Amino acid sequence: MDKLEKHLTGKLKLLKFTFEKTSEIVSKANIVAIERQRVALLKITANIEEVKLRILEGKFERGDNDETITNWSKNVEEQVENVDAEVEKLQKYLDEMKANQASKAKEAERAQQLQFEKEQYEQKLHFEHKKRLKHKRNFGEEKAQRQGKASEKYDADRMQLNLQRNQSGLLECRGRFQGHYPIYLPDTEIYTEKFVQQAHEDTLHGEVGLTMAKVRENHWVPRLRQLAKRLIKKCPSCKRFQITALASPPSGFLPKDRTEGNTAFFPTWQRINTRK
User: Fold this and answer.
1) pLDDT in tens, 85-101
2) For the chain, what are the domain ranges?
3) InterPro entries from the entry (predicted)?
4) Contacts of 35 (CB under 8 A, 6+ apart)
5) What global pTM score does this model have?
C-alpha cells in the first residue's frame, strides 16, 4: 500500500510539473506541441486514476474508515480537476486553430482559383484581341490585293511570284520553299505603306535591311527595298538623327592696317590719315 501511495505521489508531482508548462507551450501556438501536451496530460491523469483505484481497493480491504477514504479521494480528485479543465481548454483551442488553418487553406485555394480564372480570362482577351487584329489585318490585306489588281505591274507580279489563293482567300506567293508561302502585298497601296512603316517602328526605326527582314517574315512586297528607302527617308523620328549641322559662314577680309607694312617710328597722325 505504501508503495502505491508513493507511486501516486510521484505521478501527482509529474502531473503538476507537466501542467505548469502548458501556458508556455500554448504561447508558441504550435498545434503539434499543444496536441502532444494534451495527450501527455490525459495519459498521466489516466495513470493517476488507475493507481488511485488500486489504493482505494486496498484501503477498503484493510477496513479503513469511509470518511477517511472519501477525504483522501477528494483530495486527489481536486488536484486532477484543474488538469481536466485545462485539457478541455486545450481541446477547444486546438479545434479553433485547426478551423483557422482550414479557413486559411480555403482562402488560399480560393485565391489560387481566382488567380487561375484571371489568367484564363486574360488569355481569352489576348486571344480575342489577336483574333480581331488578324481579322482586321486580313480585311486590309484583302482590300489591298483587290485594289492592287488595277496596277500595271500586277500581271507581271502574278506570273513571276506564282500568286495563288489560300484557305482564307488571300493571294500568297507559291515559291520553291514548301510550307512557307508569304502573303502578297502590292507596293502601290496605302495599306502596304502603313504595314512597312509599322515594321520599321517595330524594329526601333531600323535601317532598310532590318525593316525588310521584318516585313518578309510572313509577307512579300515587290520592290520592297525602294518602298522601304522612301518611307524611312520620310520618317520624322529618323530625320532628327540624320540631320547635318549647319556649315560655318566664310571668314571676312582682314583690315588693311593688319596687312600693310609700316616703319617702326611711323608718326601717329600719318597713320590716322592713312586709315582715312
Assistant:
1) 888 888 888 888 888 88
2) 1-105, 150-241
3) Integrase_H2C2
4) 94
5) 0.46
